[in-house]
């Protein structure tokens, strides 16, 4: 054993030494590649030092652009101090995927941090829905200064906000008189700015969100009685159906100053009819962030859907995982033919182990597994023999 | 000492002890390792991987013993949510929320009776007994703490209030004739007399989502703070005595139980496992994993000790209660 280990310890370094970067004269590179294109106000250090071969293999490589290794591996080989930081909290998608060049130009740029000169355009290349023209735009948004509020790599706050939303707003909007005048009848301390205001822009003055709650338009007193907090009961007086949905063994009645509704909904204004505080997925992830992290990490999963509520009942449900209905009906909404196919499923087919109705989610976990087709076990054998032992 | 293979955190004392007991010559292995380059070290560590996992599971003293279930076609248990144990009678009661009924089992795990109160129950969720005459049931469908008079076969719904506001009963416990109820809308625990007069409130201003479960043990109330991942121990007069930080050993804790020796057990729904802590709150070991077969968890909801020192786990996903003994 010791001899074998000694042999491995001797040979492995030799093997890897053979593929270490070989120094190549950059002058050879610039015989074909225009040198001017590699210089700007800010030039990447290896380029400045003419060390093209630090990142590129001049002859052959597995990676696009003749890169010696995966992009992130190359970047972190120098910027290692960032690696740990970039894995904490809410991480920007390209960062988590190691795609540094989505935002950074690797050779030279006119801007510090090797970012493109028009940062906002670069952001909109991915965040296509955010590129809108508003009648009343927020100044930083209109100026394309995304980084006034958002951090590019990671943050402690959802949507990569550089601080808590209210703190961010108040860092500029400090004039107490204006704030007081604009919120004359506001019955409680000013907080939750984003529940009414759209930080990018709006068709309404004061960046009020597009859809207004009818009682807010008509009469504050229909909900507010003096300075007392408005409880869930007040909401449910009108939204009776929702109240019934919440009386389930799984419900979203949760703590929020005694009014669970305000966990997800704004009482005054929103971007849609449901007056959600944010895009639905982000509202869900504000509590279920761990679910998102696990979903992102799993290998095989259901493709992203636009809304969690396509499958889950947001107020309450009598089904596992707060599904809208049982594990067949939810899937068949989209997978129409899958409800009537090969393997028997439905109320008359029970899982031998649990006595529960066999459904799509008996074998598949849409939130992701390590097995193909997001099966809960390896599909060629292991999954089947859980029930069909004789096979 | 931190596990170098999976970096899950400190390797507990039991792990170290098991290594010693097995006479695994760690020092000799490390001597060999220290002379090797990093890549070779990684190769060698892969040998340790299987060993490590085995040791962590071996650290749990709990073994599967029996199951409480009803799995007949069209009559199978559906989403059981809680368990009540009548120590005097030696009976287990399972609340079958999906089929609006209660099921009783004897200590061997044999089904004795199915009770649906004349189909009067509306999404029962949790139950306790305070006397021989009847049972208290949290009915989610009615938002009620209902009393069932077993002799009269009569269900009396009760809407609970605290300081004039309606509360949403969730988990319930009883001790010395007092009922303790979690208000799901605030995360507080409120105690009530049998006449349903509010008495004491157990609350936590720092707990973002309030309490999700609690147990009364040894004259104290132990409450689980899900978002902050702490266990808060109160005197029964509502005074906080101690806080135990669970740290990163759990992801989504949903229930807790206090063992006869004072060990704390926390059921983690997303990890599908139980984490055990000693009386000082130090993480000791974790056991069980995701699955549908014996001794595995799918969507577990509650953990509870029976009076005989056995650990019971209610699993609504697998629709059964599994009982483990040491």
Give the topology, please:
The complex is a heterodimer of chains A (391) and B (326).
Chain A: H1 2-17, H2 26-29, E1 42-43, H3 45-48, H4 71-78, H5 80-85, E2 90-91, H6 93-96, E3 108-109, H7 119-126, E4 136-137, H8 139-142, E5 154-155, H9 165-172, H10 176-182, E6 201-202, E7 211-212, H11 214-218, H12 232-238, H13 240-246, E8 250-251, E9 269-270, H14 280-285, H15 289-297, E10 316-317, H16 329-332, E11 346-350, E12 357-358, H17 360-363, H18 382-385
Antiparallel strand pairs in A: 1-3, 2-5, 4-6, 7-9, 8-10, 11-12
Chain B: H1 13-21, H2 26-34, H3 38-58, E1 63-68, E2 80-86, E3 91-96, E4 101-106, E5 111-115, E6 124-128, E7 134-139, E8 144-149, E9 154-156, E10 161-162, E11 165-166, E12 169-175, E13 178-183, E14 188-192, E15 198-202, E16 211-217, E17 220-225, E18 230-235, E19 240-245, E20 253-258, E21 264-268, E22 273-277, E23 283-287, E24 289-290, E25 296-297, E26 300-305, E27 311-315, E28 320-325
Descriptive overview:
The complex is a heterodimer of chains A (391) and B (326). Chain A has 391 residues and is mostly helical. Chain A has 3 domains: 19-117, no CATH class; 136-285, no CATH class; 299-385. In chain A, 29% of the residues lie in helices and 7% in strands. Chain B has 326 residues and is mainly beta. Chain B has a 4-stranded antiparallel β-sheet with strand order 1-28-27-26, with no helix packed on it. In chain B, strands 2-3-4-5 form a 4-stranded antiparallel β-sheet, with no helix packed on it. The relative contact order of chain B is 0.12. Chains A and B meet through helix 1, helix 15 and strand 11 of A and helix 3 and strand 11 of B.
């Amino acid at each position: 054993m010791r001899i074998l280990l000694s042999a491995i310890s001797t040979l492995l370094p030799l093997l890897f030494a053979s593929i270490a970067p070989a120094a190549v004269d950059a002058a050879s590179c610039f015989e074909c590649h225009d040198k001017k294109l590699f210089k700007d106000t800010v030039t990447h250090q290896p380029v400045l030092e003419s060390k093209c071969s630090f990142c590129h293999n001049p002859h052959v490589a597995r990676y696009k652009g003749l890169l010696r290794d995966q992009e992130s591996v190359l970047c972190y080989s120098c910027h290692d101090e960032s690696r740990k930081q970039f894995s904490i909290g809410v991480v920007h998608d390209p960062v988590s995927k190691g795609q540094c060049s989505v935002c950074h130009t690797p050779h030279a740029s006119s801007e510090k941090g090797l970012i493109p000169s028009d940062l906002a355009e670069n952001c909109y290349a991915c965040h296509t829905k955010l590129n809108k023209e508003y009648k009343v735009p927020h100044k930083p948004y209109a100026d394309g200064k995304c980084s006034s509020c958002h951090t590019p790599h990671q943050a402690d706050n959802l949507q990569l906000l550089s601080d808590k939303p209210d703190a961010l707003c108040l860092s500029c909007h400090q004039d107490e008189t204006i704030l007081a005048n604009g919120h004359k009848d506001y019955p409680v301390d000013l907080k939750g700015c984003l529940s009414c205001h759209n930080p990018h822009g709006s068709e309404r003055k004061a960046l009020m969100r597009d859809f207004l709650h009818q009682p807010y338009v008509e009469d504050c007193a229909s909900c507010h009685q003096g300075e007392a907090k408005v409880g869930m009961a007040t909401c449910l007086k009108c939204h009776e159906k929702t109240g019934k949905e919440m009386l389930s063994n799984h419900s979203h009645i949760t703590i929020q100053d005694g009014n669970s509704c305000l966990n997800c909904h704004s009482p005054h204004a929103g971007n849609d009819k449901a007056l959600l505080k944010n895009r639905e997925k982000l509202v869900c992830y504000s509590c279920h962030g761990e679910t998102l992290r696990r979903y992102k990490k799993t290998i095989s999963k259901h493709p992203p859907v636009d809304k969690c509520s396509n499958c889950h009942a947001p107020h309450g449900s009598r089904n596992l995982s707060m599904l809208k209905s049982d594990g067949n009906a939810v899937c068949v909404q989209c997978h129409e033919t899958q409800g009537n196919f090969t393997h028997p499923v439905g109320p008359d087919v029970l899982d031998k182990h649990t006595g529960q109705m066999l459904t799509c989610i008996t074998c598949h976990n849409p939130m992701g597994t390590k097995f193909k087709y997001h099966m809960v076990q390896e599909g060629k054998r292991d999954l089947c023999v859980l029930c069909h032992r004789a096979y | 000492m931190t596990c170098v293979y999976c970096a899950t955190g400190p390797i507990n004392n039991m792990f170290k002890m098991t290594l010693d007991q097995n006479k695994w010559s760690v020092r000799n292995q490390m001597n060999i390792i220290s002379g090797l380059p990093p890549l070779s070290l990684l190769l060698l560590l892969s040998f340790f991987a299987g060993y490590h996992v085995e040791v962590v599971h071996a650290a749990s003293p709990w073994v599967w013993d029996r199951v409480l279930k009803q799995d007949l076609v069209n009559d199978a248990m559906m989403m059981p949510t809680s368990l009540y144990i009548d120590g005097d009678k030696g009976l287990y009661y399972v609340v079958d929320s999906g089929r609006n009924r209660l099921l009783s089992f004897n200590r061997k795990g044999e089904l004795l009776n199915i009770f649906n109160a004349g189909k009067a129950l509306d999404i029962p969720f949790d139950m306790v007994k305070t006397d021989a005459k009847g049972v208290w049931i949290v009915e989610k469908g009615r938002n009620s703490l209902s009393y069932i008079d077993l002799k009269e076969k009569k269900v009396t719904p009760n809407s609970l209030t605290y300081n004039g506001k309606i509360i949403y009963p969730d988990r319930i416990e009883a001790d010395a004739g007092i009922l303790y109820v979690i208000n799901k809308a605030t995360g507080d625990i409120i105690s009530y007399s049998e006449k349903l007069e509010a008495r004491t409130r157990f609350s936590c201003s720092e707990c973002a989502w309030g309490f999700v479960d609690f147990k009364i043990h040894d004259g104290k109330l132990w409450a689980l703070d899900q978002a902050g991942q702490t266990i808060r121990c109160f005197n029964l007069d509502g005074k906080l005595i101690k806080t135990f930080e669970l740290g990163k050993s759990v992801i989504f804790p949903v229930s807790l139980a206090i063992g006869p020796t004072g060990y704390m057990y926390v059921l983690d729904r997303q990890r599908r496992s139980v984490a055990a802590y000693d009386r000082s709150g130090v993480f000791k070991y974790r056991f069980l994993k995701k699955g549908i077969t014996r001794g595995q968890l799918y969507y577990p909801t509650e953990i509870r000790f029976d009076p005989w020192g056995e650990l019971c786990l209610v699993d609504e996903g697998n629709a059964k209660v599994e009982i483990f003994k040491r």
